[in-house]
Amino acid sequence: QSVLTQPPSASGTPGQRVTISCSGSTSNIGSNFVYWYQQLPGAAPKLLIYRSNERPSGVPDRFSGSKAGTSASLAISGLRSEDEGDYYCAAWDDSLSAVFGTGTRVTVL
Amino acid sequence: QVRLVQSGTEVKKPGASVKVSCKASEYTFTNYDINWVRQATGHGLEWMGWMNPNSGYTGYAQKFLGRVTLTRDTSINTAYMELSGLTSDDTAFYYCTLGLGEVWGQGTLVTVSS
């Protein structure tokens, strides 16, 4: 089962913009929507982005998603201390299975 | 407010099976797929499989084929995930989700220990 590749860590100071990448293949990101999740310490994951760039209601517009080819990105602008946690991307694969990213730990310095 | 409420912590011995439930509320249960995802402590998210509650159709990750079974009881809006042949590597939090993570259950800790 393949996985999507993310950098293990990302960091920034309050107010900065942080970007997290998610690399896949033509069978997953290349041909399907990308999802992004935030997992704060000790909590279940929460949906941040669906359909590659759509935000569910209640998610601040500081979070934005994009996709190009077989890669996707999550940007967090105006970084805040409460954004510290783990971030995961996911996508359906053409094999009718889903794959998750390896996860990125975001630290606010 | 859409909710998925899972059953409680389980402790199992190696070789045993575990069945986790996921009760849905505040939406039409048969209209949306349920996915199952697990997370070992300190590790990332791992997709296990999906089920269409209306038809009962399922799809499983290659890694879990033959060991995981997804079922449902539409009369009580509840989905189930049963995992057999447990080993210590199966110790993890198990989550049910609406669609691919649109809404998450609170998670069920399954510990496998002799």
Notes on the structure:
- The complex is a heterodimer of chains A (109) and B (114).
- Chain A is built from no helices and nine strands.
- With 109 residues, chain A is mainly beta.
- In chain A, strands 1, 3, 4, 7, 8 and 9 form a six-stranded mixed sheet that branches.
- The model of chain A has no long low-confidence stretch (mean pLDDT 96).
- Chain A is globular and about 40 Å long.
- Chain A has strands spanning 9-12, 18-23, 34-39, 46-49, 63-68, 71-76, 85-92, 98-100, 104-108.
- In chain A, strand 5 and strand 6 form a beta hairpin.
- The N and C termini of chain A lie far apart (35 Å).
- Chain B has 114 residues and is mainly β.
- Chain B has strands at 3-6, 10-12, 18-25, 34-39, 46-51, 58-60, 68-73, 78-83, 92-98, 103-104, 108-112.
- In chain B, the strands form two sheets. In chain B, strands 2, 4, 5, 6, 9, 10 and 11 form a seven-stranded mixed sheet that branches. A four-stranded antiparallel sheet of chain B has the order 1-3-8-7, with no helix packed on it.
- In chain B, a hairpin with a 4-residue loop joins strand 9 and strand 10 (103-104).
- The A-B interface holds A 1, 3, 35, 37, 44-47, 50, 56, 88, 90, 92, 96-103 and B 35, 37, 44-47, 50, 59-63, 95, 100-107.
- Overall, the morphology of chain B is globular
Q: Give the SSE order of chain B as H and E letters.
A: EEEEEEEEEEE
- List low-confidence stretches of chain A: none
Strand content of chain A: 35-45%
Q: Using DSSP, what is the number of strands of chain A?
A: 9
Number of helices of chain B: 0
- What is the CA-CA span between the terminal residues of chain A? 35 Å
Rg of chain B computed from alpha carbons, rounded to a whole number of angstroms: 13 Å
**Biggest interchain interface, per-side counts:** A-B, 21 and 21 residues
Q: What is the C-alpha radius of gyration of chain A, as a whole number of Å?
A: 13 Å
Biggest sheet overview of chain A: 6 strands, mixed
Helix content of chain A: under 10%
State which percent range the strand residues of chain B make up. over 45%
N-C termini distance of chain B: 40 Å
Helix content of chain B: under 10%
The ordered string of helix (H) and strand (E) elements of chain A is: EEEEEEEEE
What does the oligomeric state look like here?
heterodimer
Whole-number mean pLDDT of chain A = 96
Assign the structural class of chain A, choosing from mainly alpha, mainly beta, alpha/beta, alpha+beta, or little secondary structure: mainly beta
